[in-house]
Amino acid sequence: MATTAQDLQSTAAPSPTSGARRYPSRHPDVVAFREAVVALAASIPDSDDARHHAADAGRRLVVLGDAGDADALRLLLRPDPSVPAVAWTVACYQIGDLTPSALRDFADPVEAVTTLVHCGEASHLAAELVASTDDGLRWTSVIRTGDLLRFQLLGSATCVADAQGTRLAAAEREWEAQLLRWAVGDEPAPEDVPGLPAVAVAASGEAQAAPAPNVLEALVEQVLSTLRTAERPPEPPAPEILDRLAAIEGRLDDITRALDGLRRDNRQLALASWWQRVPRLAALRATFELHIRGDAPARPVGHAAAIDTTAND
User: Fold this and answer.
1) Are 82 and 178 in contact (CB under 8 A)?
2) C-alpha–C-alpha distance, residues 136 and 151, integer Å
3) CB atoms within 10 A of CB 299
4) Considering the entire predicted model, what is its pTM?
5) 3 near 182, Cβ under 8 Å?
């Protein structure tokens, strides 16, 4: 049986005073999307991990779109999480196009996601889902290449705002706070009905008063400050790196032994060259070597006697 948007909502009854419905944050695909986006934010840009998490988040959006869950998509695909009024545009591209071949605007995020996946034109091999606000934010939140969808974090590379950049900076702060809430598993406040008081709904379905906004902001800022200044522990090296280091160390040992041998050879060559440059020393050396080996000729007796006579005089 197909899952409907109503099935994805909590069975808890809404507060009769607020009129707000509970945000379906406990639905597995919503939780999985949030976890994938948090992991994407923690990954090195353009790494294999980042591409994996971006594709995972894109798949979760497709599931929510197939389920017709407009409420979840409306909350997840906002350039600024604090601004509920958003419109969506799907831009399709053919091979080699630098400008869109087709643009379609939507007020319903389900229709936008469905069109992003299947626009009906086989020649449109790429597409983008752009979420826009009335005050000028334009965020390319999802891109499609062939059949692969990837979610994109909001930032200067994916979002266009006013020339001063103040609007984008404000949206980035809101997204930073939202990512923190998702990372720690906090239940976001419902925002389905603008202008009505927000309530925090417990797992039991009982409505509770939401904390004061300034308390939440202070808590978020405190945790964010801690995360910014926290020092990440060093990651242990991968086994293949350890193997390469061992091989390099062995090679260095071989080089060290070879250098030692060269030093010894150089000393011997230098000594031999020194003896050759001094002929008298070379002759003495040859004589010493003969005496050491016992091959030196005996001295003439007459010569020895002459020496002795001279000594006596």
Assistant:
1) no
2) 21
3) 9
4) 0.54
5) no
Rounded distance between C-alpha atoms, residue 114 and residue 73, angstroms: 12
Contact 89, 130 (CB under 8 A): yes
- Whether the CB-CB separation of 89 and 132 falls below 8 Å is answered with yes
Return the closest-CA partner of residue 84 out of 40, 137, 151: 137
Confidence of residue 152 (pLDDT cuts 50, 70, 90): very high
Q: Tokens at residue 93, please? A: 């591209």
**Cα separation values, 261 from 50, 128, 258, 265, 275, Å:** 51, 66, 5, 6, 22
User: How many Å apart are CA 286 and CA 292, to the nearest integer?
Assistant: 10
Instruction: Tokens for 291, please give them.
Output: 């005496």
Average pLDDT across the chain, whole number:
74
Residue showing tokens 């009982």: 206
- pLDDT by residue (tens digit) across 46-99? 999 999 999 999 999 999 999 999 999 999 999 999 999 999 999 999 887 778
